[in-house]
Design a protein that fits this description.
The chain is an alpha/beta fold.
Length: about 750
Amino acid sequence: MDGRRYAVIVGTNTCGTGVRLPLLRHAEADSQAMYNALTDEKTGTFDSVDVQLLLGPAATTRKVKEALRSAALDMTPSDILFVYFAGHAVMSRWRHHSDPYLVTTDLDLNSLREDPDGGVRMSFLWRDVFHATAGSSFLILDCCHAGAYLMAAGADPVRIRQELPQAIEEAHEGHRPARHSALFACAANQAARENDDLRGGVVTHHVLRGLQGKAADARGGVTFGSLVEYVRAQDIEPEPGCVVQGWGPATALTRPVFGAGESAGNARPVPRPVAATSITACRNPLESELGLIEKLLERIFRSDSGLTRPEGSDRLAALGALRYAFDASAVLELKLSGAESVIVGSSGNLSPEQLSETFPVVASVVRQDRSVLGHVITPASGPRLLVVPLTSTDTEAMSALVVVDPAPAFLDIGEPLVVIASTMLTRWSPRDLLKVEVDVLTALRAEFGRLPLRLYRQGLSAYSRLLDSLVMVFEPVMILSDRANTVGIQSWEALARTDSKARRAPLDVLSIPDVWGDEFLIERDKSLATKAIRSFALAHSRGQWSHDAPKPVSINVSVRALLSAAYAHGLADAIREAGLAPHAVTLEISERDPIEPRSDEWDRWKPNPSAYFQARLAALSRNLHVNFAVDDFGVGHSSLDRISTLSLTQIKVDRSILHHALALKELELVVQLARAAMDRGHSAQPRVVVVEGFDSECPVRLSDIYNLGIRYVQGYITEEPASVDLLPLNLDLRERIAAFLR
């Protein structure tokens, strides 16, 4: 619902006591003009009874604070608060982190040392006004030194001068509540920014023009969002800084657009025609503390403090990393068994007295309330504690992470903070911080569903870099024969590994898209396909077969990636750059994915999903000159139906079938299906059948497989791990294989 509109408008030309600044000429007139624009009977949207105008002698510290607090505390979630100030701003000289003051008429700069609350501080606006409001709030500052308050957030003064608007937004991000927007007229090192030709402050001049109609949107109203866009488009140097967010900025402040031939004096405002319905995405709850979350992640993963190489085990290193990241005095991992609490690991120190007081409270909280992810304990005396349960079972033995005296600001993050802390402890690896970062962001995604766009993009970027760090190894598909000289290699399969010595796939990395969705999945498949093709071409060029054309190579791919134009373009570029011959690449369709549309895709997949997907494969085969295979037949969605309905060149049988009681019957059926397309005249030759994972422990003999007509196996039978190089089969192995078949 559209609630009340409160406003506090303050303007003073004077400079208080003890402030060596020139008198202003237009601040009070600008404030009066702002009041008139907002409360105009025809175009304004503010009721004059809800607008406080404090000019000149009336703009005292007490009256300004009372007006701001009164409006903030009276608001409901549907209301808005508009605050405008025209005047000077000065820095406090007695705080380590400067906290600028808006100069009220009676401000005594010399008294602030003993009475820092004797003026209107920026921290008062954040803490006691904007954070206290139930609704949306807006702030416009037109004062020459407003940007000096950036020092309160620890910003670099050099950067303030060089990149002022961006620095303003970054510093404001650390303070602002969820529903607050602001426009800052900030001119560093200038005593005043008024223009006699304009008869007012430079920024306020454009703000007023915007409110009078220059910033009207398609609906005929001037919103805070459209006003900021208009003002920042003017020739103002330096450009004002701003933060515009949330639902509030879409609320009309004035409605200055009228029908043809009408004016404010003889007609009521009418909206312009609207071209389309306005659609606004619902806010994500994490966005309210997005700035703090980003700062914490930057502190963890992009710190120059030596955090990445603490001594000890990964678990102890994680405790040290948490202590630094949270700026805590200590971090403990406790095991809670019965009435006893045992420190499993720690970073930092606590006195015996603090430990004896802490343990019983932590144990009680962890055991009694498991409805939330974590707790903040603030004892009557002693440090504040962040307690994160690490086990959720009902057993007596439990464990918990305890962060002692963390930075208070980070506690405002709430449950996301708990997720970050627990993930860091369980996944920390100083040797692979990129993987830890992806794990932390993935844990946030899994717990809260949708992340703010900036965190989502950060996750995608980090995952892309993680994929790029993987290496590709190649496993041969062996040709079976009862003669040693014809036992050979038919093709290669590209497999992802964390390094060249790893024996198994990094399933924890490859399964990350299960949490994030299609964009991550497509990024994974495109990145690995590109890396596989480039690595294969390089391995071939340095191998013993470099004088011949490369043998075929197969690559795993998901159903969703095959539907993606981005994947197809990336694959085509990689094949072209590698100079591979047509149909040298086979895409093995993952058994993990069903071939079916998403809920919003049914219309495009009609009348038959299988026919739609088959048409997609045909187009890819025609355009990219690639082949298709089913991977791991007998597992997941790799079924008889998939084999019978898709145009395939290969069928790869999962090793699990070899351990079935009816393994030979199932393999015989696969061979028959492989011949079906040829028998129907749809293919000139049968599909290739490859048995994967064959080893010495298989109950099925190699000769049984051979006698069924299967001529290709892949896996441990080669007795060599997959390699970054294309290694030939040694003579002893070839003779042994031939002997098995004879």
